[in-house]
Amino acid sequence: MTKSTSGRLPLDKNIVRGKQIQVEVNGKLHTAYEGETVAALFAAEKLSAMRTTPEGEPRGIYCGMGICFDCLVVINEIPNTRACMTWLKDGMKISTQEGLKASHR
After folding, report:
1. Burial classification of residue 1, based on how many CB atoms lie within 10 Å of its CB (0-12 exposed, 13-18 middle, 19 or more buried)
2. What pLDDT is attached to residue 17?
3. How far apart (Å, rounded) are the C-alpha atoms in residues 100 and 88?
4. Whole-number mean pLDDT of the chain?
5. What's the sign of the alpha-carbon dihedral 96, 85, 18, 41?
6. Core-most of 14, 26, 28, 96, by most CB within 10 Å?
7. Which of the pair, 81 or 16, is modelled with greater confidence?
8. Phi, psi of 51 (to 5 degrees)
9. How confident is the model at residue 4 (pLDDT cuts 50, 70, 90)?
10. Beta-strand pair 93-98/51-52
11. What DSSP assignment string belongs to 26-93?
């Protein structure tokens, strides 16, 4: 039996997941599920750093509710997107953010 590297809970009769989707993180395809946030995917795949500060220090999930802005990522070329507040969508392209980025919004 192959040991899973995913941080997701194993499925049982009490856990129901959304439809399986594919997203790209830093050029690598990952399986995710509708109903998960970008931050949940990072946690499940054990990807701890979502961005770096201008000084190069790694940052990741801290508050998990959109207050601290430590989980900023670039999604579909839009920087400064909070991973903990953004629902995954099939085909989404996510990349870690380096330093401060000017928003395209």
Report:
1. exposed
2. 87
3. 23
4. 88
5. positive
6. 96
7. 81
8. -155, 170
9. low
10. parallel
11. TTEEEEEETT-BHHHHHHHTT----EE-TT--EE--SSSSSSS-TTEEEETTEEEEEGGG-B--TT-E
How confident is residue 103, by pLDDT bands cut at 50, 70 and 90? Answer: low
Q: Which domains does the chain have, with CATH numbers?
A: 20-98 (3.10.20.440)
Lowest-confidence range among 5-9, 41-45, 82-86?
5-9
Task: Give the pLDDT mean for 31-57.
Answer: 93
- pLDDT of 84 > 90? The answer is yes
| Distance, CA of 96 to CA of 53 (rounded, Å) | 11
Token pair 């953004």: residue: 86
Contacts with 3 (C-beta within 8 Å, 6 or more apart), sequence order: none
What is the C-alpha separation between 92 and 69, in angstroms, rounded?
20
